[in-house]
Design a protein that fits this description.
The protein is mainly α and about 260 residues long. It has two domains: about 1-60; about 65-260, no CATH class. The protein is built from eleven helices and no strands. The chain has helices at about 5-10, 15-25, 30-60, 60-85, 85-115, 120-155, 155-165, 170-195, 200-210, 215-240, 245. The chain is globular, with a radius of gyration of 21 Å.
């Protein structure tokens, strides 16, 4: 794989002049945000390069597991912040949902499909877990925003279904269905055009790294199935585990500050 020298890497940032010119022409106030985002990306990826080198070199099961747990914690915290729910109530359920999803997905794909001799092999365990968590993060935010927003805005529908259906599970079906649809539709659209419109980053990276296109495609198919399953499980479990904080003992939606709101 051809390395990119530092001067060439710095030269690559010149292309950002094009979007900056568009921003200035249309008075889009994103220039400062762009610079901050790029600087953060450089610093964060620089740190990633350092600690991943260390993690890969040590290749210790406990350290690798701890790092994945940290990723789950950060992901759950981001979901809490972006969805706008109470930290003390919802962080735990979201962490639990993330952990269970990762355990199931990793056990199935790393243990059964890839059949690693060493299950916690850092070069597989950490990146694949990260890809699943990263995608679950985005789709979880969309799905939970839809779910909590729907309950807050359409309580009358929930109570009508609860009264006529007899169970909270039946009354929640349309809200959960809408959350899953809004969350997973973009991912399904992306899956359906892979290879025609887009070449995914994992597959491209493997090909650039010297892997055969056939091997890269096999891994890409696997990771997309894993990502979709992980996104679905994480969202469903997050909804399931957060129920005790969204509803009281009688099945009523708790009011603002105590549950869905801050």
């Amino acid at each position: 794989m051809i390395d990119i020298k530092l001067p060439d890497l710095l030269l690559g940032f010149i292309i950002l002049v094009l979007p900056i010119m568009v921003f200035f022409y249309y008075q889009v106030r994103l220039v400062k945000t762009l610079f901050i985002s790029v600087i953060r990306m450089i610093l964060q990826l620089g740190l990633v390069a350092v600690y991943l080198e260390l993690i890969f070199e040590m290749n210790n099961a406990w350290i690798n597991t701890l790092w994945v747990f940290i990723m789950v914690f950060v992901s759950a915290g981001t979901v809490v912040r972006r969805v706008g729910v109470n930290w003390r109530m919802f962080l735990g359920p979201f962490i639990l949902a993330g952990i269970i999803s990762i355990v199931i997905i990793d056990a199935f794909f790393l243990g059964l499909i890839i059949q690693l001799d060493y299950f916690f092999e850092a070069r597989y365990f950490v990146p694949i877990s990260g890809m699943i968590l990263g995608n679950s993060l985005n789709h979880n935010i969309v799905g939970l925003t839809s779910y909590f927003g729907g309950l807050a805005e359409r309580k009358e529908l929930y109570y009508f279904l609860l009264t006529n259906g007899g169970s909270r599970r039946q009354a929640l079906r349309p809200f959960v269905r809408e959350a899953l649809t809004k969350s997973l539709n973009p991912l399904l659209a992306n899956i359906s055009v892979i290879g025609l419109i887009s070449l995914p980053g994992m597959m491209t990276g493997q090909i650039l790294g010297g892997a055969s296109p056939v091997t890269a495609i096999k891994y890409q198919v696997m990771i997309m199935v894993a990502i979709f399953t992980g996104c679905t499980l994480t969202l469903w479990l997050s909804i399931l585990f957060s129920g005790k904080y969204v509803f009281d003992e009688m099945g009523n939606v708790r009011e603002g500050g105590r549950s869905i709101g801050r």
